[in-house]
Structure formats: structure tokens, C-alpha cells
Amino acid sequence: MSDFPYTDRFAVNRTLPEHGRSREDVLAELKAMAAAEDPTWETGRVSGTMYCGDHEHYRFLDEAFGMFAHVNVLQRDICPSATKFEGEVIAMALDLMHGEAITGTEPAGMVTTGGTGSIIHALLAYREHAAKHRGITRPNFIKPETGHPAFDKGCHLFGIELRKAPINPDTTQVDVDWVADNIDENTIAIMGSACNYGYGTVDPIPELGQVALDRGVGLHVDGCLGGFVLPFANEFGYDVPLFDFRVPGVTSISADNHKYGYALKGASTLLFRDKAYRNAQYFYLLDWTGGKYMSPGIEGSRSGGLIAAAWASMVQLGRDGYRRYAKAIFETAFAMQDAVRSHPELQIMGSPTFCFSFRSDEFDIYHVADAMKPKGWRFNGQQYPNAIHMAVTRPQTQPGVVEAFRADLDDAVAYAKKKTAAGEAPVSAAVYGGIPGGLTTEAAQFIEGFMEQMLDTQQSVPPA
């Protein structure tokens, strides 16, 4: 049996074909694979992953993308439309994040290739700005332990010391006092999430903003997940603290267009209170034999199609479209959370928003995942503590999904009690769960080896 997919249905290309196939034949194969894979998430039982789920909207974006897919936005003299698209995406995102509250500086932004792209560009900007204006050569950055792993990745890549702040286990919000106590003369910035991926909770951004102002450091708000949903929360009467540029200490915000902005994958927005931060990470090479070279960020060539599609999504949906979808997502998420709370054996982590996590002290929560997986539910497993994560997207807002979740969860809790009484371990614990007693060096090496094998398999060439 091969780990390489579709070997039983289609020819495998182990070498470049000597003769090409017809376009019709190639498209037929692609359509067959898409038809096989889309039903998995179309049911609304998959956490996150597909944030829009509207095939009509996808077709609209595909058409917008196709007109500019071949364009390289590095060369604006050939494609001035890219400046229109990118500039307006930035302006609309600034509007959503209350850029009008910014005074005394010129706000700016950039369109990146995704959440990780926005995060690492923010880190690069803070590092370069601090080196230029504060003479910092050994920078450090502080994030809550719930902050996205992209901050760990970026700090690793850019030689920035990462300091991880603990969270309050009840609220799952960052310990602001710890952050304040661990800022020093080499701290370039701190961050908070709105909301964090794991628990769907929003860090106390106003308090972090005051710390940033008092200590003279930047504050990045990671709104990659919530940036196109949370701005509407207060309109619906939900208690979500301020997290945007109305908080004076906030100096940058990331928000992913390709999540709840309903753009195609490969688009995110990074916003700055002061363009001096953004411009600090511009790259110039003046003496290259190929001519003078510059780029606004890490990437050189970028497809104009992704920026055009992000722009098309924003102007087609408008504020009322995003508001309408956000309302349905919030209502669905809170209905699902009510279903969880109906079981005293289950506890929701903190006070979440449109995504949430739940655990149990009565049984291994992965028994619940085991019971619901055959019914099509795909959760994200969590650890320290072991929990199940559900990010509500538009597919979950379909009629009947909440009712199915409630009924299947009832059965899953009964299943978990039965398995626990029998002393049986859950199957999914090996994939989802933390290591009992903590992550030892030996356990870490074993897990890394297992994960390396997974990545090797996912990027493997076809077997002979």
C-alpha cells in the first residue's frame, strides 16, 4: 500500500512526460480529485480550514484571479492595477481597524502571502526599526504562550530572542504583569492575540497597550484569525475588548484576507500605525550587476492574481456582507458552545469568541474525538491541557449542523464515559495529546522524528 495518493485512479508522473496531454484530459483529472475531496468539508463538520465554503464565491474569485494570475507585481510599470488593488486593500483594512484613530503618524500597510507572512514581516520590521532608531543588536520579543507558532518561527529565522509569557489558566489570557516585568532595554515589541487560535480568546490589548506606551516598545496585535470577524462583535452586543488602532499603544495589526476575509489562500494584510515601521524592512541592493534591486518585503515576485482576488472579495462583500456572515458565525459558535456546556463533564477554556476549545476532568477528551470522527467531525487536538478545538466558519452555519453537533456530542460523551469505565485509552491520543509527565528530551526527539516522517511523506516523490 502506497502513501502516495491517487495511485489507484490516475497515472503517476515519475518523469516529465515526453508528450503532453490534452487540456481537457488534464482538467478532467483535476475535477475528479476536487470532486472527491470537497465533500469532506462541505458538510460543515470540519473545524476551520475552509472559511468561506461558497463555491459561487470561489468561482467569482477564480475569475478575478485568472485575469492577473500571470502578472508579477514586482514590476508595477507593467501592471499599475496592482498598486490600485494593494493600496485599496490596505485602506479598507485600515478602515476596518479604525485607522482614523491614528494621529501624529502616517499609517501604512502591506499585503503578504498569509498569516505567517504578516507575522514574520512584523518581526522583521520591529527588528530593523529598533536597530536603526535604538541601536539594538540583541533584540528580544515577548509573546503569550498562546501566541501563534509563526512568532517562534520568525524569531528563529531573524535571530530574535523569544520570551514566552504565561497565561491565566482560567481566562487563557496573557499575564500582563509578567510581560511588563520581562521587558528590558533590548525588547523590540510585545504581542497579544485577537483572538488566539487555540482558545478563541482575546488578550487584554488595552492593558498591553499601556505597558507598551509606558516602556516604549511596539505592540503587535495578531488578528490573523479574527481580523475580519471581531470588528463586528460589539455591534451584536458581544463583550469583546478593544484590540485595534483605537488602543493608543497598538503599533501593528495582522489580519488574514484568506481566512474570514474570504479571499483565496495566499493573502493577508499587515498594518502599521507609523509607516516608519513598515519602511524599516524594505530591502535595497544598489550595486548588483543586474541593476538596482528593491522589494517591499521578503518575497520578490508575487502573483497579481492573489491581490486582485483579495480586493475583489472585499469590494464585492462590503461591510454589510462581512457583518452578515460574522453574525451567523457568532450565533453558530455560541450555540455550539451551549451544547458543550450542557454536559457538566465538559469545560470550555476561557471566554471564547467564534472558535472555542473544551476539555474534561472526568474522562480523556480524545474519546470524544474518537466517537465523532466516524460521523465526519474533524477537530483540532490540543495539549497542555488536552482539549478539542473547533473553529466555526461559514460551512458550520448551514442548517442542521448545530443540531448534528449537539446530537453527536451527546453520543460522544456517553461513549467517553463507557470507554473510561472500561479502562480503555483513546485512539487519537497518540496524535493529539501531550506527553504524560511533560515533554522530555527523549519524547521530543521521538515526536520530531515521527513528524519529520510525516512531512517527508507529504513532500515525497512518487514511489518506483
From TrEMBL:
GO MF annotations in UniProt: transaminase activity
Q: Where does the UniProt annotation place the signal sequence?
A: none
Cofactor(s) required, per the database record = pyridoxal 5'-phosphate
- Keywords in UniProt for this one? Aminotransferase, Lyase, Pyridoxal phosphate, Transferase
Q: Name one Pfam family in it.
A: Pyridoxal_deC
Q: Report the family membership.
A: Belongs to the group II decarboxylase family. Sphingosine-1-phosphate lyase subfamily.
Alphabetical list of PANTHER family matching this protein? PTHR42735, SPHINGOSINE-1-PHOSPHATE LYASE 1
Name of this protein: Aspartate aminotransferase family protein
